[in-house]
Design brief:
The protein has ten helices and no strands. The chain is an all-alpha fold. The chain starts with a helix and ends with a helix.
C-alpha cells in the first residue's frame, strides 16, 4: 500500500464521525480538485496530495478553536510513515496557512503547493456544494437561516470571525462571495467564476422568495 493510500485510510478513520461539511467526502473533493489544478502547475505532487488529504484532519472549529491540534496530528502520522522532515514541514505549513480566517489573516508561508490546496479547498466552499455545506454547518450550530436585522460584518478580526454566531446567509457575504477574487491559480480562478455565479443566482432566488415575490 502506498503512502497516499495509507494516508487515505488514516483520514477516513479519523473523520468517520465528522460534521457533514468537514467529513471524508469534503477531503476527497478537495483532493480531486487539487489533482485537477496540479496538472497545470509545476509542483511537488506528493506534497499536494498529502496537504489536501491532511488539511482538515483536526479543524480548529471542532477542537474549541485550538489551531495546534491539526498540525500535531498530521506530524504524528507523517512521522509514523517515515516521511522526510522536509515534506512534513511543508505539509504542516499548508495546514497552518490554508484557512480564510475572516480574510484578515496574512499567510506566513508561501508555495505553489499551498496555493493549489488552498484553491481546491476554497472551490469546495462555493457553488452548489458550498451552499449545501454552508447551511449544513449553520444547522449544526443551530443558527438562523437569515435575519434581515443582523447585517453581515465585513471587517471582522480573526477572533470575531471564529466566534461569530450570525445567521447562515451572512456567511455568503463574510466569506463565500469573497473567495472568487482570492484564488491563486488560473485553473482555480476559472472554476471559481462559474461557482460564484451559481451562488449569486441562488441569493437572488432566496431573497425573492423571502419577500414573497416568486
Amino acid at each position: 500500500m502506498s503512502l497516499i493510500d495509507r494516508t487515505i485510510v488514516f483520514v477516513k478513520e479519523k473523520l468517520q464521525n465528522a460534521e457533514g461539511g468537514h467529513d471524508w467526502f469534503h477531503i476527497e473533493r478537495v483532493y480531486k480538485n487539487s489533482l485537477l489544478i496540479a496538472k497545470e502547475e509545476d509542483c511537488d505532487l506528493t506534497v499536494v496530495q498529502l496537504g489536501a488529504l491532511l488539511h482538515d484532519i483536526a479543524d480548529s472549529k471542532f477542537h474549541e478553536g485550538d489551531e495546534t491540534v491539526g498540525p500535531k496530528t498530521a506530524r504524528t502520522f507523517l512521522e509514523s510513515q517515515n516521511v522526510s522532515e522536509e515534506i512534513t514541514i511543508h505539509v504542516i505549513n499548508i495546514i497552518e496557512n490554508i484557512s480564510f480566517k475572516g480574510g484578515n489573516f496574512e499567510k506566513k508561508f508561501n508555495s505553489i503547493e499551498l496555493e493549489i490546496v488552498q484553491d481546491a479547498d476554497r472551490l469546495d466552499a462555493i457553488g452548489a456544494i458550498g451552499i449545501a455545506r454552508c447551511f449544513n454547518y449553520g444547522g449544526f450550530k443551530n443558527r438562523a437561516l437569515y435575519n434581515p436585522d443582523i447585517l453581515p460584518n465585513l471587517n471582522m478580526s480573526k477572533e470575531e470571525y471564529k466566534n461569530s454566531k450570525s445567521p447562515t446567509l451572512n456567511h455568503f457575504y463574510e466569506k463565500l462571495l469573497l473567495l472568487k477574487d482570492k484564488m491563486n491559480t488560473p485553473t482555480g480562478k476559472k472554476i471559481a467564476e462559474a461557482r460564484h455565479q451559481y451562488m449569486e443566482d441562488f441569493l437572488s432566488q432566496f431573497f425573492a422568495e423571502w419577500e414573497g415575490e416568486r
